[in-house]
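#dry-run=false #mode=assembly
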Amino acid sequence: MSYQIHIGPNIRKSPFFEATVADGVRSFSVYNHMFIPGHFGDPEGEYDRLINGVAMWDVGAQRQVALEGPDAAALAAYLTPRDLSGTVAGQGRYVPLCNHDGILINDPVLLKLAADRFWLSIADSDTALWAEVAAREKGLDVRVFEPDVSPLAIQGPKAIDVAVDLFGDWVKELRYFWFRETALAGIPLVLARSGWSKQGGFELYLQDGAQGSELWRLVKEAGGPHGIGPGAPNDVERLESGLLSYGADARYQCDPANPFELGLGKLVDLDSGQDFIGRAALAKIRAAAITRQRTGFFVDGPPVAGNQHPLPVTRDGAPVGRISEMTFSRRLGRNIAVGLISTSLDVAAGGLSVELDGAERQVTPAPLPFIQPG
Amino acid sequence: MSYQIHIGPNIRKSPFFEATVADGVRSFSVYNHMFIPGHFGDPEGEYDRLINGVAMWDVGAQRQVALEGPDAAALAAYLTPRDLSGTVAGQGRYVPLCNHDGILINDPVLLKLAADRFWLSIADSDTALWAEVAAREKGLDVRVFEPDVSPLAIQGPKAIDVAVDLFGDWVKELRYFWFRETALAGIPLVLARSGWSKQGGFELYLQDGAQGSELWRLVKEAGGPHGIGPGAPNDVERLESGLLSYGADARYQCDPANPFELGLGKLVDLDSGQDFIGRAALAKIRAAAITRQRTGFFVDGPPVAGNQHPLPVTRDGAPVGRISEMTFSRRLGRNIAVGLISTSLDVAAGGLSVELDGAERQVTPAPLPFIQPG
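#status=ok
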């Protein structure tokens, strides 16, 4: 069964919205209150371009939360459990954000633009609201706002060729998560070596929302010789690569999880003395040890179309874990999934299953990622 | 052009999701990271039921933010500019919420369940994140969380008959926005006289997410003799009635507006001495006087299908306002809209227009509501 989505004014449009419509987008989802393309009518071709070529994605819905002012660095350090002391301007960091109970509420990339200027490039929750009230209640001298910044991603092994053609050879020297402020035909942007896949690539952080169609056109034109085509963040690839999807794998309201459970424990700095939101709770969680942890799963049986809901993993009818998302991997020829599993479980004993569309399927825990980036 | 939406695990399902699928939902939107029905394939019939009969809506996406504990009342008072001092248990209040700059960030109904127990029944922003960090940074002794509560609305002039059949004659005495904790066939719920229309009705706040299909079935069965049918919050009716839609008419990230501009100034209590988030900013805004205000508009020309984006209102090419949403009203036989307009404008001089689908349309400001509730 397929359902329509109405394009109305209550959900925001990305600056690339019109360009994606012109290029035949067929499906949208909503992320940060903004339409985000789902696919362009050719899911297998879009996957193949990501794995073997280059794809261009409207990820404008990956909104930015800007921190600007004398206390911007102090606020950044207070918002995340990660130690930012070695971070320099031009560098990005993957930073879990937790609430005061130590529950993950977003997992953005932090871009340090200057000593007093940062962006959080966020997953799907209203992080600006949260960061702003924290800053104001603490009396910090920092402005928290959403700037006119919208990323366009180019992802896949040939993304480097497109980036070189667009920006020059210097992009080859850009390290992963590092970025540079630059321009393209007069369009101001930040070019970062990043993106929500493990196939390599870049994100072009457009800094003028009026020029979305023009930037899309320039990237499409430069990518033409390299076989570029439109696509969208790809659930199959992210599951193969073991990427975390905040919103699917965890969401603080309904599927609360802490960074230790999610495999992000090494990003929690409880040793430096830096204060941050959730510090006391995370110290307790670490001391008590976690009772479940992130894992992959193989799922037996014929190829699955995917799951609409998270699914409990059971043994002898008792819940022992949870699958958040599953898919069929063509590269592996198997159904794969990610989720959480009890740390006290004797996994080797087998006997784990999920119920999918009324039938039991055997599942087997597997280490992540399923496929190492090439 | 119509677009699909994928039903995946990254967006939450309401407890009524399966029931709406069984009843033929054709379109979804996303609200508070949850699917919400758009329509069931018969928009005109669904509108007619709301105006002349009774409709049932899955508004589970209207999530609750619970405040519980010794400082719950103190937190509630700190979160909203509205004076809550006269509010008693069993009473609901429409409460604008603002950030520290006095910008509206949500406009929930606050339900006071007990002296130390409240729900905020929220519009589309992550208010729990925001309220929780405010509470914790202030050191208040209150738990902020999302409870297992999901409203099902029955709306329309015959909703009262359905409610009487379900709950008994006492519901006739329930005043607007008041509520009572009760049960239906053992299903725990809160029955409130409320809902996002001006056609009258009730919201059944289901308190057990596992019983969504059963509650839907009970309401459908009781409503059968009264001609009940499925529907969804209705943009035509809300525009006719002048209801505010947070997300369409204002959104703090992209279309920031303060309560004075939005016609909510009388709910801002700057006189009692109560401290609340945004108090200093709102005092300044009031002292300086606003430069634009909420208004309706008539839009000339043939019936419009609606607008995808907010539209600037111009005079002689200069922006003087903004239309957030427009529609054709069958009851009025005219196109109507809501938005904001400059307070310094000589409206009687005319000459206002918007550009819609490449053509200029004359617009005329009009008081809200367009149609008084019957």
